[in-house]
Design brief:
single chain, mainly alpha
Length: about 270
């Protein structure tokens, strides 16, 4: 039920301080669908059953399209010569793919106590600083609420964990980070600063890319759970849970620092 607590804390705070804006409604409505679906999935797992994959995929796709209904989408790239506007279909496809991917990527790395919540803390902190630099204050507000909620959750989720976010919390965090990036770092981005959200979320992106490649090469289903993730490999090498999580935190922090250096250098 940790995911439900994350949702209530983030959405309630966002609605109180920001009101019913397009950004807050996107997070509230899309997040509710993900949390309810995740709770059903988590409930099935507690009984030793697998929740069917296709209903989840359909919900994830619908939720990934939800930001578009509120006008939050990747529109194009800015340059010294003006704004390069993408074809409308490309902006739609790019936005959906990005949100759908992040929903799953954060869920994939939620395999060790404190890993997903810690990486989400570092990623949202990076997006918060980037939004402040670009004077995108509504996006910065959402990002700092994510930072606060993730830190509060991490106090009870670090090894040995006393509360777990489950699929409900991991998919909601992935969705919130994806929407934050689209509304902030991707908006009016230059060709180079597109790298900022990609680097800020570098750990889940790289982990997912490597795991998907391994599954393809081994002929396994892409959606099948396995022990191929980075944290599993590090623990097989002999690292403890705390050492594993701390090492991945360090990598995430380096990615975040690099993204902010890049943003400042090109601002």
């Amino acid at each position: 039920m940790g995911g439900a607590a994350l949702y209530v804390g983030i959405v309630t705070t966002l609605l109180i301080v920001q009101g019913a804006t397009s950004l807050s409604l996107t997070i509230a409505i899309g997040g509710l669908a993900l949390v309810l679906t995740g709770l059903l999935d988590d409930a099935a797992k507690t009984k030793g059953k697998d929740f069917p994959v296709w209903p989840r995929v359909i919900v994830y796709l619908v939720v990934a399209a939800m930001p578009l209904w509120f006008g939050i989408e990747i529109e194009g790239l800015s340059s010294p010569h003006g704004m390069l506007i993408f074809p409308h279909w490309l902006g739609i496809v790019g936005s959906i793919v990005w949100v759908f991917a992040l929903i799953n990527m954060i869920n994939f790395i939620d395999g060790v106590d404190g890993l997903a919540s810690g990486v989400a803390t570092l990623s949202s902190l990076t997006l918060f600083v980037a939004a402040l630099i670009k004077h995108q204050f509504p996006t910065a507000l959402l990002a700092v609420i994510l930072v606060a909620a993730c830190i509060a959750f991490l106090m009870y989720n670090f090894y040995p964990a006393r509360i777990f976010m489950g699929d409900a919390g991991a998919t909601f965090l992935g969705y919130s980070l994806a929407v934050t990036a689209v509304d902030g770092a991707f908006k009016s981005a230059t060709l180079v600063t597109v790298a900022v959200p990609l680097l800020a979320l570098g750990v889940p992106i790289l982990d997912t890319a490597v795991v998907m490649l391994r599954r393809l090469l081994s002929g396994k289903g892409l959606h099948r759970a396995d022990k191929l993730h980075t944290h599993h490999v590090l623990m097989r090498w002999g690292l403890t849970q705390i050492q594993t999580v701390s090492f991945i935190y360090l990598i995430a922090a380096l990615f975040s620092l690099l993204s902010l250096v890049l943003l400042l250098a090109l601002s």
